[in-house]
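pls design
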């Protein structure tokens, strides 16, 4: 008979396992807060060059942060008190025209009937529930903007405070990683801001020119969906083409052509010039990253995963170089430069 094995686990190991499990539980519980911190950090990285530029022109840092705060909350105020009421009015007008539009669409799709008053009331009740979530979302947005301002003011101290927890031999690596990742995040945020504004402007001009219902709503949808590559294009195109088709089939064809033309121009001409060399990612890499991020954290994960994927070469060069074969880094650089 085989001898019984006497397995003994040190008490210190049990304590470490318990502490690790506790940290995992805390991280899961606080994950929404961590997402807020990640978004605030991205905004702070985007606005940091503005603060540096104003300080270079002899503007005190406190005054510069105050100007940025006024600008950010002014944009938020314009959206809340001008864009949102305009969207609501357009949706109300569209609801009034919906029966006649459906009747017109019934010529192409048999057995299509207009919604009953009870169905419209049910949709309105869901809209009230959505308004409650919108208030919670607005609170989160305001908190993110406030945190980003504090990070602009004290971000360097926070980074050094966190680096102090690392071992002395790893502190310089962490500083170098932060310095090398910052341009990548800035390129990503700058590119997202420009391309989203361009996409929303193209959608708004197209829908207004063709007199498509809810043009502002479609433009805001295009602005938000452009944050998610590939998948966002599909999501913003379907409702725009559908509403255009209700007005006239030829308008749907025009909208489809314009949206696809802009997507191709953005992918092959705008993005390479705006993002620069820091965000060189192949279309397959973007699609896989967006899919993984979407599965893990929904739309937020799909948006936030790209700068982390783009920052992998930095991590590979600083932290993994001694573990990889000699020619691996060289080949990876060549492949990245060819994308």
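designed seq:
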């Amino acid at each position: 008979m085989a001898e019984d094995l006497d397995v003994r686990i040190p008490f210190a190991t049990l304590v470490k396992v318990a502490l690790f499990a506790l940290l995992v539980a805390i991280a899961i519980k606080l994950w929404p807060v961590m997402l807020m911190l990640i978004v605030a950090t991205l905004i702070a990285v985007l606005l940091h060059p503005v603060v540096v530029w104003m300080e270079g022109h002899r503007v005190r840092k406190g005054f510069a942060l105050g100007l940025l705060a006024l600008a950010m909350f002014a944009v938020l105020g314009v959206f809340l008190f001008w864009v949102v009421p305009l969207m609501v009015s357009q949706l109300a007008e569209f609801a009034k025209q919906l029966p006649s539009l459906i009747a017109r669409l019934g010529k192409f799709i048999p057995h299509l009937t207009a919604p009953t008053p009870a169905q419209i009331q049910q949709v309105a009740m869901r809209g009230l529930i959505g308004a409650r979530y919108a208030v919670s979302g607005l609170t989160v947005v305001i908190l993110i903007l406030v945190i980003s301002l504090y990070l602009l003011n004290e971000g360097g101290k926070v980074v050094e405070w966190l680096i102090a927890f690392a071992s002395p031999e790893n502190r310089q690596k962490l500083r170098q990683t932060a310095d090398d990742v910052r341009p990548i995040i800035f390129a990503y945020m700058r590119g997202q801001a420009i391309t989203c504004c361009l996409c929303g402007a193209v959608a708004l001009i197209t829908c207004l020119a063709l007199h498509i219902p809810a043009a502002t709503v479609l433009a805001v949808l295009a602005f938000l969906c452009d944050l998610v590559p590939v998948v966002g294009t599909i999501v913003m195109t379907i409702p725009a083409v559908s509403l255009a088709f209700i007005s006239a089939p030829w308008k749907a064809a025009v909208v489809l052509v314009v949206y696809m033309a802009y997507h191709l121009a953005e992918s092959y001409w705008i993005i390479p010039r705006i993002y620069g060399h820091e965000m060189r990612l192949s279309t397959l890499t973007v699609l896989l990253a967006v899919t993984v991020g979407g599965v893990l954290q929904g739309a937020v994960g799909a948006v936030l995963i790209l700068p982390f994927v783009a920052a992998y070469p930095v991590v590979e060069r600083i932290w993994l170089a001694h573990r990889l074969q000699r020619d691996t880094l060289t080949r990876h650089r060549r492949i990245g430069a060819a994308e």
